[in-house]
Every structure is written in structure tokens, then in C-alpha cells.
TrEMBL record:
Annotated Pfam families: AAA_18
Organism: Methanimicrococcus hacksteinii
Protein name as it appears in the record: Putative adenylate kinase
Keyword terms of this UniProt record: ATP-binding, Kinase, Nucleotide-binding, Ribosome biogenesis, rRNA processing, Transferase
EC identifiers of the protein: 2.7.4.3
Acetylation listed as a keyword: no
């Protein structure tokens, strides 16, 4: 099954670009594991650094000893950043004439952005949650010199699945990796395997859709850049396939979508099951 709720035209015409949250209770290893992947060339967005770099407004909560960020401002800034990365990536694909079926072979060209933070699952549709047994987590947080109160708050949160429950409210697809018995390298290995599997899944759906529309991915890229791709043909094909197609100015389009995307297609799970297109 595809994970994206909404496809705009760029989503359809270019290979899928996945934004994946790497989330979890503090101390479960998000920072270390994502740095390992970053050193290998994967695209990572560290939210803590991002908040500082882009001056996203936040307030200090002295009682809980943490900063509370303005989530609306953060969400908007991350969305813009993701769009920019995606545009740059699509240009690269086009200008360097990259073969779409080879993209997954190197981390540098893999169309995936991993968003690392305990807030990441509020920003992405697809989440990977790092989990750690509370006893091990307690040891890790002790080594960091956290206060007893802060350790207790975090191990309690991990025991009762706070982050995981939040993911169920905000994400469509959720995966967990238990890091308790693993070192950082092994956890990073698991994460890489998962990311590649998720991307392959999206790419297979995309390829099947392209095949159904009887166009090759390369010809779509060329036609889109030269501005002559017949968008109405794509929309007709999708409508024939049972999809609900919204056009610019359509009353049914929600505020968010009107703002962000000129033309949208609603993907309704179950109603239009593209998984049957994949062998
Ligand atoms: N799989 C692991 N096995 C053993 N130790 C680990 C593992 N992952 C992380 N650690 C250690 O646990 C500590 C916390 O890791 P890290 O800072 O990456 O957590 P985090 O989830 O990013 O926390 P925060 O949300 O507070 O930034 C580090 O000292 C790290 O070396």
C-alpha cells in the first residue's frame, strides 16, 4: 500500500519522495543513529538544529526543564524545507539524467528525508519509533546526568507508549525498532533496511501507476520540465481508475490543500487500492 494521503502533480510526475520521522522517547538513540546514517550520505533533518537555525519561536518551560516550540511555525517551516529539498532533488534527477530505478542504490540519491526528533511524528505521515526497555533507558539517561525527576518522566513515558500512541493519532504508517539489545551500528543497520524497503514499496506503486498510464518515468520528467506534459490526460486516467480528482478552485478542497497545492488528487484508502497494481 502507498503511504501518502495526498498526491499533488509533482508527486505523481516524479519518483516518490519520502519524508520519514525518526522519533522516540529521549535517550532511545535518535541523534546517534541518525548521525551514523548522515555520515553515510543519507539526508537527515535534525529538528533541534533546524529550530535554532531558522529561529522558530519557542518558550522555556522551567518546571519541566525544556523548551516548548511553536508547532504551527515549525510545521510550516519544515514543509517549506521539504518542498525545497524535493525541488532540488527533482532538478538533479533531470539535469544529471539519473536512472530512476537506480536511485535507491546510493544514499545520496535516495529520495528520502529522515526527520529526527521526538517531535518528528507530528510533522510526518510515516514514522519509525525507536524503543528502549525502561531499565536500559534509565541507565542511558543516568549517564547523561539527567535529574531523577526527568529520568522518571521519560521512563514512565516509554513504559506506557506515549510516543507510539501519539503516532497513532498523527501518522498513517508506524514502525518500531527495539534498540535495547542493539548497539548504535546495528540499530542504524535496521533503520537503513526499513527505509529502503519503504522506498522500494513506494517506487513499485509509482512504477505500476506509470506503466498503467503508458508513460515511462524518464519521458515524464522531460515533458514536465519542458512544460508540455498533458496533465489532463493524467487526471483523466486517474479518474477512470476511481480516484477523486480536485482541480484548482474546487469548493471541496480544504484550506490547507488550497494553500499548498494547485491541483490535488485525493487518495482514499480502500476505495482505490493501488496495491493490486503491484505484482
Ligand atoms: N542502540 C544503542 N545502544 C546503546 N547505547 C545507545 C544506543 N543508542 C543510543 N545509545 C546511547 O544512548 C544515549 C542517548 O542517545 P541519543 O542522544 O542518540 O538519544 P536521543 O533519542 O537522540 O535523545 P534526545 O531526544 O534527548 O536527543 C547516547 O549516549 C548514546 O550513545
Amino acid at each position: 500500500m502507498g503511504s501518502l494521503k495526498w498526491y499533488n502533480m509533482t508527486d505523481i510526475l516524479f519518483p516518490p519522495f519520502l519524508t520519514i520521522a525518526l522519533t522516540g522517547t529521549p535517550g532511545t538513540g535518535k541523534t546517534e543513529v541518525s548521525k551514523q546514517l548522515e555520515s553515510e550520505g543519507y539526508r537527515i533533518l535534525h529538528i533541534t538544529e533546524f529550530i535554532r537555525r531558522y529561529n522558530i519561536p519557542s518558550e522555556r518551560d522551567d518546571e519541566r526543564d525544556c523548551d516548548v516550540v511553536d508547532m504551527d511555525a515549525l510545521e510550516e517551516a519544515v514543509f517549506e524545507y521539504q518542498q525545497q529539498i524535493r525541488r532540488e532533488f527533482n532538478q538533479k534527477v533531470f539535469l544529471e539524467n539519473l536512472k530512476l530505478e537506480d536511485l535507491h542504490k546510493s544514499p545520496e540519491f535516495l529520495p528520502v528525508l529522515l526527520v529526527e526528533s521526538h517531535l518528528a511524528h507530528y510533522l510526518c505521515d510515516l514514522s519509525v519509533v525507536l524503543r528502549t526497555h525502561p531499565n536500559t533507558l534509565k541507565e542511558r539517561l543516568n549517564e547523561r546526568g539527567y535529574s531523577d525527576k526527568k529520568i522518571m518522566e521519560n521512563i514512565l513515558a516509554e513504559s506506557i507508549d506515549v510516543v507510539l500512541c501519539d503516532c497513532f493519532d498523527y501518522c498513517r504508517r508506524i514502525y518500531e525498532i527495539n534498540t535495547t539489545e542493539m548497539d548504535i551500528e546495528k540499530t542504524a543497520g535496521c533503520l537503513k533496511e526499513l527505509i529502503h524497503a519503504l522506498y522500494d514499496d513506494e517506487f513499485n506503486i509509482y512504477s505500476a501507476l506509470m506503466e498503467k498510464m503508458n508513460v515511462t518515468a524518464e519521458s515524464i520528467a522531460v515533458r514536465t520540465f519542458s512544460g508540455c506534459f498533458p496533465i489532463s490526460d493524467v487526471l483523466d486516467t486517474l479518474e477512470d481508475d476511481g480516484a477523486v480528482v480536485y482541480e484548482d478552485g474546487d469548493d471541496d478542497v480544504g484550506d490547507y490543500m488550497e494553500e499548498k497545492n494547485p491541483i490535488l488528487m485525493k487518495y482514499v484508502p480502500g476505495q482505490n487500492d493501488w496495491s493490486e497494481l503491484v505484482d
